[in-house]
Amino acid sequence: MSKAGAFDLASGVGGKIDKTEVLSAVEKYEKYHVCYGGEEEERKANYTDMVNKYYDLVTSFYEFGWGESFHFAPRWKGESLQESIKRHEHFLALQLGLKSGQKVLDVGCGIGGPLREIARFSSTSVTGLNNNEYQITRGKELNRFAGVDKTCNFVKADFMKMPFPDNSFDAVYAIEATCHAPDAYGCYKEIYRVLKPGQCFAAYEWCLTDAFDPNNQEHKKIKAEIEIGDGLPDIRSTRKCLEALKQAGDMGERSCSRLTSPMVKALEFVGLAPKGSQRVQDFLEKAAEGLVAGGRKEIFTPMYFFLARKPQHG
Description:
46% helix, alpha/beta
């Protein structure tokens, strides 16, 4: 756990949102989603506002209960959560074939947990791309604490419009992040553009599996619950994900709640946490139920892995 405890959780709720406006931000965020009567097209049209509100609201919850890396990982018997997360990140670095001194881009980097781990594991310089100011501020502080602030940095920008020249990076990766893009093709096209010829892009992606039935009401409910808890415009199928990757450039691929509601309620009641904190906890719990159900039904995975290489003369 990278933060000290309940007080840090309470003080961080809302991120850059004024504490008096947290409740109204929660209400606006909820209205983007099917669970609360929202529409998919509205989410896509307003994805920047929606995703920023989401991460302002939940980042302190994530860090308190999850650590610095906001992603899933398969666990071996006897392996701790943090051990599994590190192994998951090391696997990605090894698949990319990272070498000392290379310049790497982390697309949708959160507060930089994977960025720091991969930079230290591979002796590379990693740039984290993120459109959320609060997460970048927190990430810079953690970079300084970890001693990687001289080799790793953050850039605030939309991954649909990256502020980098063509052919800038020796490798690019994304961990459960590009699922937030309103258009996967547009996002992958930008990644293709900034990646050097002959180099690789690797990602873990949130995807619906072929077992998902869009006409099954239970499946639709599970999908909606997952989306409310991670601000996703719309979860894509694995097939659509790979189709978008191929369209973005001629890249070949191969596929291969620790928080307690009573505690948050108490913090809000005594005024340590802003009004609306309990509502954030509620939709995170709803999402957790959807994630568990999606896994049990085998209709969803947060870890669909692919590795793609940009042609040498692309």
